[in-house]
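Budget justification, computational time. The allocation requested in the original proposal was used primarily to generate structure tokens for proteins on the priority list. As evidence of use, we reproduce two of the resulting records. The first is shown immediately below.
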Amino acid sequence: MKIIFIALVALLALYLAVGLLLYIKQRSMLYFPTSSVEHPFETMTVENEGEKINVIITNTGQKKALIYFGGNAEAVASGATVFAKELPDYTTYLVEYRGYGKSTGKTNEAGLFSDAIAIYEKIKPTHSSISIFGRSLGTGIASYIASLKKVDKLVLITPYDSIEQVAKDTYPIFPISLLLTDKYNSIDRVPKIKAKTIILIAQNDTIVPKKYAYSLAKKFPEHQVEVHEIKGSHHNDIADTNEYSQILKRFFYGR
């Protein structure tokens, strides 16, 4: 009995230690800040809550605007050329998250949400419409702003229903709802989203398995959302496929 008791105590201690580690390290497991990348495009700085958020701008001066929120390890400047070429009549604002690139601060859900609203409000007076584009982690921010502000089109690439649900499935023996601070519960925001929405899913996504994207998609009214699964694609290469480009061009331009 003594041996069993010692074993149970050891298991409990291990469980508590791992749980504590998950709590302490959770943001370093979610965010992977990237360094600044050289590029030829204009930039603007949005000051919010004492932080300076760097935003890269393509095709300045267009009536329509697009705000881009990237993945958790993405240097958004690397994709600026693609936006400039593929969406020539949209001024695109690519956001470097707090702690990423030239932006100051520490990355967290509340801060990224606040910055997103600040950027939206800053550009709104100069554009006839604003669309939102989110990829992976950025889909949570895109869904948030689309649930609160007037948005023309909403693009969600390899999205999730909530980071909380993904974490629960990954660590089922831990009380994730209590441990997790940044939950990104996009699925709860869907009823407040009125924008025409498109969701693109990678068939072989092992980083954010596609079941989470379909869970999110099912929450939208059928008339409001398009859902496309790109065959043969993975989480990080979905944008390299011809189908991806063609679908987005049809969504934005009807061709």
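The second record produced under the same allocation is shown here.
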Amino acid sequence: MRVIVSAGGTGGHIYPALAIINKIKEKEPNSEFLYIGTHNRMEKDIIPKYNIPFESIEIYGINRKNLLKNFKTLSCFIKAKKKCTKIIKEFNPDCVIGVGGYVTGPVISTAHKLGFKTFIHEQNSVAGKANLYLSKFVDNIFVSFKSSVSEFPKYKTIYTGNPCSEEALKKSPIDKRELGLNPNKKLVLFVMGSLGSEKVNNILYKTMNSFESKDYEILFVTGSSSYDDMKELKYPSNVKVVPYIDDLTRVMKKTDLMVSRAGASTLSEIMALEVPSILIPSPYVPNNHQYKNALDLTKNGAALIIEEKNLDSKVLVSTIDTILESDIKVKSMKEALKSMSVKDSATRIYNAIKEKCDL
């Protein structure tokens, strides 16, 4: 199979794209791939490390604060479509898959105009503007949450879950001793994304001394941007502080409770691995989509939400203790997560593409 994949801007788009690529490679090892991303975002550094051919286009999102900048945005979009026409014709793919980000706009619309089979995947419970725009051009729309099915044309929308979930299940659990943790104690994992959140981290730091008398351990992943400041501070002996953990899913498999943002890929892993969680959605994302992602879990009893505006040490510690001290609560959250999880998401996507492309 010859496949063009496009996704960009954030890991929440890029890693599901890689999960789809990995599934196609698993099913058809001789497949060839081309990844089209933006010229100045993180995919330009990540994708080549996986030995996937990469082409970049200059493209920007709509600027709602400075409308004059949109003249450049429109100009770049037109130029990007011309470049995509050349790239797609030369590669001659069996299908073109968009996995989020404004970079997918010119890629998918151009591929559709040229007559190629096209697909998109929506990670969040609230559809992104690029995917809403592209929905009329594609053969199938894959969604991570059942609640977002209604945002797209029903006849071509398929509930697949997020392909990162299937990747997470393949990972082997970490030996907690590698991180200086006691394998016989419960573990609470704090992580606010790869960069972290300065505001939330400051509250979390003030909370750490409250865990000194607890019988569980804390692994506090500060994020790379906050670590230099946070590492100099004092912590109780049952609190371990690190800047970043490569392959966090291995740690999640040994986690009793996770305190996290509510990005779509993270939630897909939480569901697949059945990790009880307290979610602190970022209020700084488009359409408040993290809060709406989290609501999909909480309304099913699969997680608890603490909004950032309501976050303080007393509320957080009390909520953690309420969960960890109740085997019944933990069991009910795990059962709810199990009922929501899609453990073969990437396979569902692969099968749908094969069927539609008649390959």
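A brief technical remark on that second record: The chain is about 40% helix and 15% strand.
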